[in-house]
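Data availability (excerpt). The following record was deposited with the supplementary files.
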Amino acid sequence: MGKISFWCDVCKIDQENTYMKNWCDYPSGRREWNESRCIKCKKKILRYITQRHLDPYWGRSAKAKREVIKYEKDLIQPDDPRFKKLYPRQYERLEAVKEANEKKKLDEIKKRDDMYKRFGHNTDRRKILSKLYNF
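Predicted structure:
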Protein backbone atom coordinates (compact mmCIF):
# COMPACT_ATOMS: atom_id res chain seq x y z
CA MET A 1 0.00 0.00 0.00
CA GLY A 2 1.34 3.41 -0.96
CA LYS A 3 0.79 6.87 0.44
CA ILE A 4 -1.31 9.69 -0.97
CA SER A 5 -2.17 13.20 0.21
CA PHE A 6 -5.21 13.78 2.38
CA TRP A 7 -6.80 16.90 3.87
CA CYS A 8 -8.28 16.99 7.37
CA ASP A 9 -11.06 19.55 7.90
CA VAL A 10 -10.73 19.44 11.70
CA CYS A 11 -6.94 19.96 11.90
CA LYS A 12 -6.65 21.96 8.63
CA ILE A 13 -3.49 20.14 7.57
CA ASP A 14 -2.24 18.28 4.52
CA GLN A 15 -0.79 14.87 5.27
CA GLU A 16 0.66 11.92 3.42
CA ASN A 17 -1.02 8.79 4.73
CA THR A 18 -1.36 5.14 3.91
CA TYR A 19 -4.88 4.31 2.84
CA MET A 20 -7.39 1.57 2.33
CA LYS A 21 -9.33 1.43 -0.92
CA ASN A 22 -13.09 0.98 -0.49
CA TRP A 23 -15.96 0.63 -2.92
CA CYS A 24 -19.69 0.24 -3.04
CA ASP A 25 -21.83 -0.96 -5.94
CA TYR A 26 -24.98 1.02 -6.71
CA PRO A 27 -27.48 0.53 -9.56
CA SER A 28 -26.06 3.71 -11.12
CA GLY A 29 -22.49 2.37 -10.96
CA ARG A 30 -19.59 1.66 -8.66
CA ARG A 31 -18.27 4.30 -6.24
CA GLU A 32 -14.66 4.04 -5.08
CA TRP A 33 -12.75 6.03 -2.49
CA ASN A 34 -9.56 5.94 -0.44
CA GLU A 35 -9.95 6.08 3.31
CA SER A 36 -7.46 6.92 6.04
CA ARG A 37 -7.25 8.38 9.56
CA CYS A 38 -5.89 11.80 10.45
CA ILE A 39 -2.50 11.74 12.17
CA LYS A 40 -3.52 14.26 14.86
CA CYS A 41 -7.24 13.86 15.57
CA LYS A 42 -7.72 10.27 14.29
CA LYS A 43 -10.84 11.31 12.35
CA LYS A 44 -11.69 9.41 9.16
CA ILE A 45 -10.59 11.29 6.00
CA LEU A 46 -11.52 10.45 2.42
CA ARG A 47 -10.31 10.88 -1.16
CA TYR A 48 -12.84 10.06 -3.87
CA ILE A 49 -11.61 8.06 -6.86
CA THR A 50 -14.66 7.77 -9.13
CA GLN A 51 -16.17 11.13 -8.15
CA ARG A 52 -13.15 13.40 -8.30
CA HIS A 53 -15.27 16.52 -8.68
CA LEU A 54 -16.57 15.87 -5.13
CA ASP A 55 -13.10 15.19 -3.65
CA PRO A 56 -12.58 17.60 -0.70
CA TYR A 57 -8.80 17.53 -1.13
CA TRP A 58 -8.73 19.64 -4.32
CA GLY A 59 -10.90 22.44 -2.99
CA ARG A 60 -9.41 22.76 0.50
CA SER A 61 -5.79 21.61 0.46
CA ALA A 62 -3.09 24.28 0.71
CA LYS A 63 -0.60 21.93 -0.99
CA ALA A 64 -2.91 21.43 -3.99
CA LYS A 65 -3.44 25.20 -4.28
CA ARG A 66 0.33 25.82 -4.25
CA GLU A 67 0.79 23.25 -7.02
CA VAL A 68 -1.94 24.84 -9.12
CA ILE A 69 -0.29 28.25 -8.78
CA LYS A 70 3.15 26.78 -9.50
CA TYR A 71 2.06 25.12 -12.77
CA GLU A 72 -0.55 27.68 -13.81
CA LYS A 73 1.74 29.29 -16.40
CA ASP A 74 2.31 25.94 -18.12
CA LEU A 75 -1.43 25.31 -18.48
CA ILE A 76 -2.36 28.59 -20.19
CA GLN A 77 -4.45 28.00 -23.32
CA PRO A 78 -4.31 30.08 -26.53
CA ASP A 79 -7.65 31.79 -25.80
CA ASP A 80 -6.30 33.12 -22.47
CA PRO A 81 -5.28 36.83 -22.64
CA ARG A 82 -1.92 36.04 -21.01
CA PHE A 83 -0.96 33.64 -23.83
CA LYS A 84 0.00 36.50 -26.17
CA LYS A 85 2.37 37.99 -23.58
CA LEU A 86 3.98 34.74 -22.41
CA TYR A 87 4.26 32.97 -25.79
CA PRO A 88 4.54 35.66 -28.52
CA ARG A 89 6.01 33.41 -31.26
CA GLN A 90 3.39 30.70 -30.80
CA TYR A 91 0.66 33.33 -30.68
CA GLU A 92 1.81 34.85 -34.00
CA ARG A 93 1.99 31.40 -35.58
CA LEU A 94 -1.54 30.58 -34.42
CA GLU A 95 -2.86 33.90 -35.70
CA ALA A 96 -1.24 33.30 -39.11
CA VAL A 97 -2.89 29.87 -39.33
CA LYS A 98 -6.26 31.34 -38.34
CA GLU A 99 -5.97 34.06 -40.98
CA ALA A 100 -5.01 31.51 -43.65
CA ASN A 101 -8.00 29.33 -42.75
CA GLU A 102 -10.36 32.30 -42.83
CA LYS A 103 -9.01 33.39 -46.21
CA LYS A 104 -9.42 29.86 -47.56
CA LYS A 105 -13.03 29.74 -46.37
CA LEU A 106 -13.79 33.13 -47.91
CA ASP A 107 -12.26 32.04 -51.22
CA GLU A 108 -14.39 28.88 -51.26
CA ILE A 109 -17.52 30.92 -50.54
CA LYS A 110 -16.60 33.37 -53.29
CA LYS A 111 -16.08 30.53 -55.79
CA ARG A 112 -19.39 28.99 -54.86
CA ASP A 113 -21.20 32.31 -55.16
CA ASP A 114 -19.61 33.02 -58.54
CA MET A 115 -20.69 29.63 -59.83
CA TYR A 116 -24.22 30.22 -58.59
CA LYS A 117 -24.35 33.62 -60.28
CA ARG A 118 -23.25 32.13 -63.62
CA PHE A 119 -25.24 28.88 -63.50
CA GLY A 120 -27.75 29.59 -60.75
CA HIS A 121 -31.00 28.30 -62.19
CA ASN A 122 -29.68 25.44 -64.29
CA THR A 123 -29.44 22.64 -61.73
CA ASP A 124 -28.16 20.02 -64.17
CA ARG A 125 -25.27 22.21 -65.22
CA ARG A 126 -24.53 23.10 -61.56
CA LYS A 127 -24.33 19.42 -60.62
CA ILE A 128 -21.90 18.68 -63.41
CA LEU A 129 -19.71 21.68 -62.59
CA SER A 130 -19.73 20.93 -58.86
CA LYS A 131 -18.48 17.39 -59.57
CA LEU A 132 -15.77 18.71 -61.90
CA TYR A 133 -14.53 21.47 -59.60
CA ASN A 134 -15.37 19.90 -56.21
CA PHE A 135 -17.68 22.68 -55.04
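Summary of structural features: Residues 115 and 130 are 9 Å apart (CA to CA).
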